[in-house]
Structure formats: C-alpha cells, structure tokens
Design a protein that fits this description.
By secondary structure, the chain is an alpha+beta fold. It has 12 helices and 15 strands. Pfam families: FemAB.
C-alpha cells in the first residue's frame, strides 16, 4: 500500500511518540512552542489508516517572500531500516512543497558510527591523529550506511562541512553513556580514575545537587552567561530558557528539569535535562570559574546520570562534541571531560537538504551566510 503524508493533531503526534522507545525532544509537539519565531506543523505518515511515522516540521520564511525552509530537527521519526526510503520521503516532499517550502532539511535519527572510550583515549594520545574520522570505528551500523546511500541516490544533499551551509544545524558527533543493565556501582566503575576522584571530592567538600524550578532560571542564566564568556560562545537570552520550560514542562511530567549544584550557598554548576521515553539528554550546562576545585560539574553530571538510571532510561546523552582529537584544538577538553564517563562517541548521519526550488534555496543559504 502506498504511504501517504498529511497533517495530524498534536494528540496523534504525542501518542505515536509514546509508542516508540524514544525520539528526540526536538521532535515533540511542545518544541514548536519553544521556537515561536518559526511556524510549525505535525506530520503523520500513514500506511492505509495506520500511523507509521510522525514529524515536527518547523517553517522558516524567506524574507519578503511567502516561501519557507521546512526543517525537521533530528527527525522525522520513522522506521529508517528500509530498502525503500523514497516511499517515505517523496510524499513528505510533495506535501511540504504544496505548503510553500522551497527546501527541506531533515536530521535522520540514525547512529552511523561509534567509537568506544578506549579507542578515543588512544586517538587523543596519538600525535599523528587529529580527528575521529581518521580512526577505525568500533561499530558501523549497516542501517546508517544504507540510509546514507539511499539519501544520496534520492537527490538529498549531504551535510556541509562545519561552519558552512544553513546556520540552523544540530551536532553530527555526540557522546552518550548506555544505561541498560547498569547499576550506580557499575556506572562509577566504568568511569576513569579522575572522574571517580572528582565525584568523591565533591561529596567530601559538601557539594549538594537539587532539582530546581523556573524560579531558579535567572540563577542558571547568570552562570551560563559566565560560561559563555569563558568558553567563547554566544549565550542565549534568559527568555529563551523561560520559553523552553513553559513549552516543554506541560507536555510530560519528566520532559525537562533544571539541576543546580551548590556549595556553602553558592551556585557552582547548573544543567538542563530533557527526556523522551528511554533517552535522557544533558541539553545545557554551565559552571562558575570560582570554586572549580569543589568539582560541581562532576557532581551534577553524576546526579543526572543516576537519576536517569533510576527513571529507567536506556541512554544518558551528553550531546555534542567535535570530531577533533588534536592536542592543539581548544575543544579537546570537552571530549576528554565526556570520555571520562566511560561512554561512547557516536556519529549520526547529520542534516540533509532537499532543494525544491534551487533559486530560492541558494538565496536563503546566502542570506544566512551573510547574516553570520
């Protein structure tokens, strides 16, 4: 039977996500309310009358023209293990073109390649290796390879090199800790000596970690803004996080949390957790420059991991890393911090574009590049 694609209700969308082991929080209906500068639509894939897929589409308008980039961040939520991906993606493209889309961007939620902690450590120690892409992965998923090849054959454009192309991207390289079958004791044992020592040091110093609420967001944001200055990135405004919590909290009891690590009344680290099904994400984090010796960042991550384990999650996802393992790369410390948890680096397929109107697609890309 031919697959069809049409608009579905928010309730239908949520019910489908609930039937899956997990999906990205960027594909929940609530995420549309967290992005008020975009218009949105919930899409459903139907095999006859049966809903077999869902996706949140965010529409970004081209200036002065009623044409849109249709963006499905970390989606759509489909059965990607298929030999006929065109049967799922072509009807989506037709639907989005009718809605005025000049181009489509998707982020297939498919893990392609995985590197274990020991492999990453060896790569960091090897002066001749500068990128994970130069290292043989420990796992290559055939679904990822097949999906990659099918997208190319269907006319989708592969991800641009970092820093090029449309500016609204999600990280291709990430880091996670698998929780299935774990206990707090096995989790701790899987960490490196530095992480275990720092967790113990934080506890001995009297660092406490609590789950906060929206009234604590200004305190979180102060530390987050300090982190942005120290690490050289542009911080999001407080209003962004207030909107994010207002959007996600009502959708599910455990969709979003705010954690705060404190020492003798001082906030030393703060993080935001999101959860869909068996997947928990460390979505945002911040720490102060003062009192770094009490190891609040380790304490707060340990609390989030053990809370995720207690909640029955399968994965604790620390999200983005770069692929660089070069000793002179300023981002090396980030991957070293995360690899200390004993988890794995993984590469998804990245974000793929399908131009539906080449002229408008190119114009929009140029507009975003010039805007910086």
């Amino acid at each position: 039977m031919t697959t069809t694609v049409r608009t579905i209700t928010e309730a239908e969308h949520l019910a489908f996500l609930a039937s899956r082991p997990s999906a990205s929080y960027l594909q929940t209906p609530a995420w549309a309310r967290a992005k008020p500068e975009w218009t949105s639509e919930s899409l459903g894939w139907f095999d006859g009358d049966q809903l077999v897929g869902a996706g949140l589409v965010l529409y970004r308008q081209l200036p002065k023209v009623r044409r849109y980039l249709a963006y499905l961040p970390e989606g759509p939520v489909l059965d990607w293990d298929t030999d006929d991906l065109g049967a799922l993606l072509r009807p989506m493209a037709r639907h989005l073109k009718r809605r005025g889309a000049f181009g489509v961007r998707i982020g297939p939620p498919v893990v392609w390649r995985t590197w274990h902690a020991a492999t990453i450590k060896a790569a960091v120690a090897d002066e001749d290796v500068r990128s994970l892409t130069e290292v043989k992965p420990d796992v290559v998923d055939p679904v990822g390879t097949r999906t990659h090849n099918q997208l190319r054959s269907l006319g989708w454009l592969p991800p641009e090199p970092e820093g090029e192309g449309f500016a609204a991207g999600q990280p291709t390289f990430r880091f996670w800790v698998r929780l299935t079958g774990q206990t707090p004791e096995s989790l701790l044992k899987g960490m490196n000596q530095l992480w275990r020592r720092n967790i113990k040091k934080a506890d001995k110093a009297g660092v406490t970690v609590r789950v906060g609420d929206v009234s604590d967001l200004p305190a979180f944001h102060r530390v987050y803004a300090e982190t942005a200055v120290r690490d050289g990135f542009t911080p999001r405004p407080l209003s962004y996080f207030e909107t994010m919590f207002a959007a996600l909290q009502p959708e599910a009891e455990d969709r979003i949390r705010l954690y705060l690590a404190e020492h003798e009344g001082d906030l030393v680290a703060a993080t935001i957790w999101t959860r869909v099904g068996g997947h928990v994400w460390y979505a945002y984090g911040a720490s102060t420059s003062e009192k770094r010796d009490v190891r609040g960042s380790n304490a707060i991550q340990w609390r989030m991991m053990t809370d995720a384990l207690e909640a029955g999650a399968d994965v604790y996802d620390l999200r983005g890393i770069t692929d660089s393992v070069a000793g002179d790369d300023p981002h090396l410390g980030l991957i070293q911090f995360k690899v200390g948890t004993g988890g794995e680096a993984y590469e998804n397929l990245g974000e793929w574009d399908l131009p539906l109107n080449r002229l408008l697609y190119t114009a929009f890309d140029l507009y975003l590049r010039r805007r910086g």
